[in-house]
Design goal:
19 strands, globular, alpha+beta, single chain, about 700 residues
Length: about 700
């Protein structure tokens, strides 16, 4: 295959693995602020609207027709961006706007953007008025807040109905302010201190709103349209294009976290494997950054309501300096401050690594080799220049396998958990280490042409028992590798259902800015797409990620699963014939494993508390609920410790701090790897 095509596929996969979301992203303007009502679309924006519409209806992978259904979806997306919690418009007002799809069509086809700008100004003016009213109440009427109410508040109203009237909106805002005050007071602040902090937050939001410019409005409207087609197709303004190109060059100096705007928050989408935040260990996907401070003692500046690029600018900084992040957990209950030392993400931190585990089988010691692959990497420049010993995933894994063979391993585990993808060429060649030859993945473009990529070297580098571990954050290239190993029956795939990201994006230049558009899809050699469904493990471990919140199936308007013709005939592998026995032995074994039981308890707790929880507006009740949750977590941890013969903890604060520079797996991670090894040894015995 030509190097240029490999590079195109690498860039396409990198778009997936970076997790870049451009929805609701705003631009910073250096011009004087123009009042909202006076903002107008530029002639270049009118032209770009027509270009984007033409490209989407002619070059997108899906067969896109600009009809009333798509126009209504785009309008719903637009209102969702402008009023995500349905806290500004009443149902009659929203329905009146949704009925004006003919004007939306004129905006997209003819570039008549005045309607889109009018809608933005209408909704945003309501938001401005609400923020001003909230500030007035906070500054002058603290006694008007009741912290003994029996009411509950649901922070996330995206799935809720539009309020019927203004009275319902008034109630929502009163409850929202009470909730925000209680959240701050639960952090050991008085009502007055909480009020002062909340006032600063609302003043920030109001200030950012006043900085709105026509680029903000245009990008918001265009992405409401593009994401109606699929969640990975986006319009990039010229400034956003520049920032995107920096990320494409893997310039990752900072903390190594992928962020996106969600409502008024900056949400953590994913962590760069081996980056400073990943190594520090406290920042989690779905956390929301609400404050940023410089150095170890610098004041933390509230960033709620800030533009995404401005938050990123605050977080970035020179290597070796410290940034402090105040974050809010996804369930709105836990606020904490995380201190991270900025650094450049080194290739070595993302490179494949190995470890050797030992397990007892019928009284005999068995050695299991584990190779962790955080991402599929490749030094394209070194490869093209024939540089000696250029780095790549396959080269490194091949070397690690040789080293493990010297240890006389009985089985090999490839750990792809949290691997968001990377170079498709490496996923393809890595499969080739375990099969003699054959197809690996199919790529179908927008014209329906299917190209088959595969391995043809006729060599197998490792032919022993093989296991692949995946989780919900294993995406794109990881899914291609795991799916091929599964389709060939070459190894056991265990863990959680993977992400399900099987679409390919490319960048098209516009007269102003760029369009990131979905142009192709990946398919397994058995014919099924990795899109939406991902890879289903042969043996499933308790999930630690909520599939309703994380994964392609959790994304609105994601392209559906489909299939093409298989390129290998269906086969009944030895693995498939033994799954029932392997799973039975697995379940019997983990019943006596304290770490695995802890994993099961954590998974069950997550499932029991999934969805959109409400919180009490009664201060005492809220504190009791927090204590109950902490007690449940403490009980789970102490059951694990008791099973291992360790001293119980009196509180979670008593837990021994981890060495932040120690990349050894946690007890639960180790239990997952060891159990994968045990399953491999079961398979080896049954096969013999």
């Amino acid at each position: 295959m030509q190097a240029s095509l490999w590079r195109w596929l690498f860039i396409s996969l990198l778009l997936l693995s970076l997790g870049i979301s451009l929805q609701a992203t705003a631009e910073t303007s250096t011009r004087e602020h123009t009042p909202l009502a006076e903002l107008e679309p530029s002639s270049s924006q009118r032209q770009v609207a027509k270009e984007v519409t033409r490209l989407l209806t002619h070059q997108h992978f899906a067969d896109i027709t600009l009809d009333s259904k798509l126009e209504k979806q785009a309008m719903e997306n637009y209102l969702q961006q402008l009023d995500p919690n349905k806290a500004l418009l009443t149902r009659p007002e929203a329905e009146a706007l949704l009925d004006r799809t003919s004007e939306l069509e004129a905006a997209l086809v003819k570039g008549e953007l005045d309607f889109a700008f009018d809608v933005f100004v209408t909704v945003t003016s309501k938001q401005k008025k609400r923020l001003e009213d909230a500030l007035t109440q906070l500054k002058n009427e603290l006694d008007s807040f009741d912290f003994t109410s029996e009411e509950r508040f649901q922070a996330d109203r995206r799935e809720a109905d539009w309020p019927e009237n203004q009275a319902e909106i008034e109630t929502y805002w009163q409850h929202r302010l009470t909730h925000e005050l209680l959240s701050l007071m639960n952090s050991e602040q008085s009502a007055e201190e909480a009020r002062d902090l909340l006032v600063r937050r609302y003043e920030n939001r109001l200030n950012r709103l006043k900085q709105t410019n026509n680029d903000d409005i245009f990008q918001s409207f265009m992405n409401a349209f593009t994401t109606s087609v699929d969640p990975h197709t986006n319009y990039l303004t010229p400034r956003r294009s520049d920032s995107f190109n920096i990320q494409m060059k893997l310039s990752l100096e900072g903390i190594g976290a992928m962020l996106q705007s969600e409502n008024e928050y900056t949400k953590v989408v994913s962590l760069v494997p081996g980056g400073p935040a990943d190594r520090q260990g406290e920042l989690e996907p779905t956390d929301r950054i609400i404050g940023v401070g410089q150095n170890k003692d610098g004041e933390i500046e509230n960033v709620i309501g800030w533009r995404l690029d401005e938050v990123v600018d605050k977080i970035r900084g020179p290597k070796g300096s410290t940034v402090r992040l105040e974050v809010l957990a996804a369930d709105n209950t836990e606020r904490r401050v995380i201190e991270i030392e900025r650094n450049a993400v080194q290739l070595e931190d993302q490179a494949a690594s190995k470890r050797l585990l030992e397990t007892q089988v019928n009284g005999e010691t068995r050695k299991i080799g584990v190779i962790e692959i955080p991402t599929f990497y490749l030094d394209f420049e070194g490869q093209q220049n024939n540089t000696k010993d250029y780095r790549s995933t396959t080269r490194d894994v091949k070397r690690l396998i040789d080293e493990l063979k010297e240890e006389d391993i009985d089985g090999l585990v490839i750990d792809l958990r949290n691997n968001g993808g990377g170079a498709l060429q490496e996923a393809n060649s890595l499969v080739g280490l375990f099969i003699p030859r054959g197809p690996v993945v199919q790529v179908k473009d927008a014209d329906g042409n299917v190209q088959i990529l595969g391995d043809n070297d006729g060599q197998v580098h490792y032919n022993g028992p093989l296991g692949v571990v995946i989780n919900r954050l294993s995406a794109s290239a990881s899914e291609i590798f795991a799916g091929a190993i599964q389709d060939y029956g070459r190894g056991l795939v265990v863990g959680e259902q993977s992400f399900g990201k099987g679409t390919v994006q490319t960048i098209l230049d516009l007269s102003e800015g760029q369009l990131k558009i979905t142009r192709a899809k990946f398919y397994r050699i058995s014919g099924g797409s990795t899109q939406h469904k991902g890879v289903i493990p042969d043996i499933t471990f308790p999930p630690l990620y909520d599939s309703e919140r994380i994964g392609e199936s959790a994304s609105e308007n994601a392209l559906a699963w489909d299939q093409v013709e298989p390129v290998i005939p269906p086969r009944n592998s030895a693995i498939q014939s033994m799954i029932e026995q392997l799973e039975s032995r697995h379940l019997e074994r983990v019943r006596d494993d304290p770490n695995f039981q802890f994993l099961q308890a954590q998974s069950q707790w997550m499932q029991d508390n999934r969805g959109t929880p409400s919180v009490s507006l009664n201060r005492k009740v809220r504190q009791l609920e927090k204590e109950k949750e902490e007690a449940a977590q403490l009980a789970m941890e102490n059951r694990r410790r008791e099973g291992l013969g360790m001293e119980p903890l009196k509180s979670l604060d008593d837990e021994e701090p981890e060495d932040l520079n120690d990349r050894e797996p946690t007890p639960v991670d180790l239990a997952i790897l060891e159990e994968t090894g045990n399953i491999l040894m079961d398979f080896k015995r049954l096969a013999n």
